[in-house]
Amino acid sequence: MIRVYTQVQQGKNWLQNYRDHKPIFACILGFTDTGLIPGISAAGATPQDRQYTCLADVEFLYNGLQPQPQYPLPPLNAGASPVLITKAIIDALNIPLYLFNAGLTHKPTVPTIDLGGAPARCLTSGHALDMAKVQHLLEAGSYWGQKLADEAKDSYVILGECVVGGTTTALAVLLGLGIAATGKVNSSHPQCNHSQKLSVVRQGLQVAGFNSALPVSQPLKLIAAVGDPMQIVVAAMGMAASLKVGVMLAGGTQMLAVYALMQALAEKLSLAWLPENIVVGTTRWVAEDPTGDTVGLAREISCVPLMATQLSFSESCYPQLQAYERGYVKEGVGCGGCAIAAHLYRNWNQTQLLKAVEDLFAPLIFLE
Asked: Which of 173, 207, 213, 223 could form a disulfide with 126 if both were Cys (CB 3.0 to 4.6 A apart)?
């Protein structure tokens, strides 16, 4: 139920080290105006919907099914929110949940740890975040990474994210770091909108004064120019936590960009980390997405173990879940990493995973 795609032996060693261990799950929430560009994301049918996707996901993740949520899960062109997968697993396995607000436009309706960040401007501005905020989030992430590691003890921390438009800011960071990511990233669309993403990213890098042919030598400056608040928080959290425990970066393109950012922070700022304790965990819908090249991207970054749950919705009785098999949604809110945790901790198979998700989804259909 788990396949390791790159750095295979390192990935298998990591899995063996944390088999039968219960993790803790932290979801880092952020917002970028990049997600409001028409057509840039399918995580919400319209730009208006996408303003509230993160708020709805975190409300559902914390409260579960409610008859009248303040922020209902947004309508999608097809599919259903990946938070259903995450919620089903953390409830069934009783995984401790931490929610961090790295920078949202609206206050969440559920308790979160406010990191004092800010939502990002559209990356086309070349000034997505103020440098002072980036520096502050780096320090806050490092602090909480140590705290989470102490809580995890001899287990591991799953770091998930919820940032609409985040695969586009990921592309910007990857290209800014000199990684050949063009045509390799994923998206929530069934056919990745590579040309739109690349056009947006090139505009932002150019406005910021970066030469796309040369890697940016200052990673914090790059995040301030074209990044989002989640990226720097997760990078700092993961690096600090890796000194004591295992870390799974739960996501696809966005977490590969975070891993590349970690490498840059270690090289340019001499931040301490233990890369052998860190893996990227996602879904096979991302890892095997024919409209991107996730495995190729991981190889371009080098030394990163990429693994994925082999969860399938092909036999689901719900069309909204079957849509994942046609390339919709694919990943988000740490769902791939949580599914990997279910395999590791409880040895869940395909049937058990599918049942847990469908059992949570069924009453949602009834309420609609």
From this structure: 207
| CATH 3.40.50.10210, applies to 2-367 | yes
pLDDT tens for each residue of 84-142: 999 999 999 999 999 999 999 999 999 999 999 999 999 999 999 999 999 999 999 99
Q: Give 334-367 pLDDT, tens digit per residue.
A: 999 999 999 999 999 999 999 999 999 998 876 5
pLDDT confidence of residue 189: 86
**Confidence band (pLDDT; 50, 70, 90) for 44?**
confident
* Beta strand pairing call for 24-30 and 156-162: parallel
Note whether 337 and 288 are within 8 A (CB).
no
The whole-angstrom separation of Cα 236 and Cα 218 is 15
Annotate the chain with three-state secondary structure.
CEEECCCHHHHHHHHHHCCCCCCEEEEEEECEHHHHCCCCCCCCCCHHHHCCHHHHHHHHHHHCCCCCCCCCCCCCCCCCCCHHHHHHHHHHHCCCEEEEEEECCCCCCCCCEECCCCCECCHHHCCCCCHHHHHHHHHHHHHHHHHHHHHHCCCEEEEEEECCCHHHHHHHHHHHCCCCCCCCCCCCCCCCCHHHHHHHHHHHHHHCCCCCCCCCCCHHHHHHHHCCHHHHHHHHHHHHHHCCCEEEEECCHHHHHHHHHHHHHHHHHCCCCCHHHEEEEEEHHHHCCCCCCHHHHHHHHCCCCEEEECCCCCCCCCHHHHHHHHCCCCCCCCHHHHHHHHHHHHCCCHHHHHHHHHHHHHHHHHHC
Is pLDDT of 368 > 70?
no
- 27 close to 333: Cβ distance less than 8 angstroms: yes
Mean pLDDT of 310-319: 96
**Domain boundaries defined on the chain:** 2-367
Average of per-residue pLDDT values in the chain:
95
